[in-house]
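Per your request, structure below.
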């Protein structure tokens, strides 16, 4: 790079901030030049300005021109969704469409018919099972009722037998008490007679 401008970011390898505008040199009075001298001066000035213009262009392209980045993203997007993927989504949608059509036309009617037939058979079996369970419940209810009646009858019989037994025991107790009373009276009479006889023998 020439002495007139800053170092180029392309050459240094890192992005640099925009250079500050250089102060223009004060015009100096030039001596009168010939046409050949003017041409050489113009060429030398153009040679000096070319590196500056190049550096400014690189800085502009790095900082302000986003077209290369956008074009790269666009090319990547097109490559991913057109070249690589191709018609994959379309084929997937067509496969789904054919699968749904097959299910609606063939599988669903078969499933409905199978469910209808099997559900009717299951309903019949459930009805038969329900009737059987109902009969078993009625039979169990009758057996429980008979058992309860039998228990009640046995309880009544036991109570009646107990009352009869107690009454019989009371009667026997009364008979025993009566016999005991009569025996005591007989013994008293016997002892009184014996005392009387003893009294006769004592008086002699």
């Amino acid at each position: 790079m020439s002495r007139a401008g800053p170092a180029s970011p392309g050459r240094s390898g890192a992005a640099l901030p925009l250079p500050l505008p250089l102060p223009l040199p004060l015009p100096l009075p030039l001596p009168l030049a010939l046409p050949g001298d003017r041409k050489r001066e113009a060429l030398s000035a153009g040679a000096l300005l070319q590196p500056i213009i190049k550096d400014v262009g690189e800085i502009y392209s790095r900082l302000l021109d986003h077209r290369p980045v956008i074009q790269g993203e666009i090319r990547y997007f097109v490559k991913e969704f057109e070249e690589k993927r191709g018609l994959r989504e379309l084929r997937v949608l067509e496969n789904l469409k054919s699968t749904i059509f097959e299910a609606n036309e063939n599988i669903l009617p078969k499933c409905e018919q199978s469910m209808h037939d099997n559900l009717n058979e299951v309903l019949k079996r459930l009805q038969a099972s329900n009737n059987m369970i109902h009969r078993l419940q009625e039979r169990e209810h009758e057996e429980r009722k008979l058992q309860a009646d039998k228990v009640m009858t046995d309880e009544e019989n036991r109570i009646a037998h107990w009352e009869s037994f107690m009454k019989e025991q009371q009667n026997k107790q009364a008979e025993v008490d009566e016999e005991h009373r009569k025996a005591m009276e007989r013994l008293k009479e016997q002892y009184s007679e014996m005392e009387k006889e003893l009294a006769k023998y004592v008086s002699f």
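The two ends are 189 Å apart (CA to CA).

Regards,
D.
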